[in-house]
Amino acid sequence: MNDNPSTPTINSILISLPAADRERLAPKLERVTMAHGDILYAPDQKIKHVYFPDRAMISVVAYTPEGQGSEVAVIGFEGITGIDVVLGSDRASNEFITQLSDGALRMTTADIRDEFARAGAMQSLLLQFTRKLLVQISQTALCNRLHTTEKRLSRWLLMCHDRHDTDILNITQEFLAVMLGTTRTSVSITANVLADDGMISYSRGVITITDRKGLEKFTCPCYKVIRQAYAPDMPMRRP
Fold it and tell me: Which residue has the higher pLDDT, 217 or 67?
């Protein structure tokens, strides 16, 4: 358990709770660090904790029986992982892996279920987040079907940038291949297209966003659709 109930967080769900709810839940929240590559849940793994990220970004990856993977969603300070546990399951439907490292607060499955069952503010916020996540997943599926790798990469980089506090993103070529559903060679070609146009710099697993406005103009409409789904409750890009 967390010995400091006043531990600060920027997680939008937690800070949107009424003060009385935050105070009541504070002893049930534990501060944890999340390093790049940490797997929170493997597919079909029993969920013991849900996580409320701060600046960490979690990638949700779906796999075929043969082991081929593709990212279907990202979760940052706007959300929670392990939403399955209040939707009738105790197991993860996909892999949840830390893509951008930082901290989070976590709560046990039993505690989040108890809070959801109170039918108060937490329940409402979790249901709102679930709807946003569904918009993101469905739009990502459409984007992967219709748009070029350059457009998809620009959308994804903007979504990462929205959830992190620097212009520098430490992202491996291997995971970019998973995200784009392509090969490492194709990743390099795609990233170099954006770099040649001055929107990013790319070297050895480090992407620096140098022209966000350029990325926003270049990317496909899917980014705007996803961003608008989240925008009513909080800005996706914080200063």
Answer: 217
pLDDT range class, residue 114, cuts 50, 70, 90: very high
Residue 3 makes CB contacts below 8 A (sequence gap 6+) with none
Is the distance from CB of 38 to CB of 98 less than 8 angstroms?
A: yes
Query: Matching CATH topology for 12-141 and 147-230?
Result: no
Parallel, antiparallel or unpaired: strands 30-34 and 69-75: unpaired
Average pLDDT of the segment spanning 201-224:
93
* pTM of the entire predicted model: 0.91
Instruction: Kindly list the domain boundaries of the chain, sorted by start residue.
Output: 12-141, 147-230
Taking domain 12-141, whether its CATH number is 2.60.120.10 is answered by yes
**Among 106, 137, 119, 84, residue whose Cα is nearest residue 11:** 106
> Is domain 147-230 given the CATH code 1.10.10.10 in the classification?
yes
Phi first, then psi: give them for residue 37, nearest 5 degrees: 90, -5
Name which of 182, 147, 163, 168 is nearest 71 in CA terms.
182
pLDDT, one tens digit per residue, over 184-207 is 888 889 999 999 999 999 887 789
Instruction: Report residue 72 as tokens.
Output: 């279907």
Q: If you search the block for the tokens 């839940």, which residue do you land on? A: 25
Residue, of 147 and 2, whose pLDDT is higher = 147
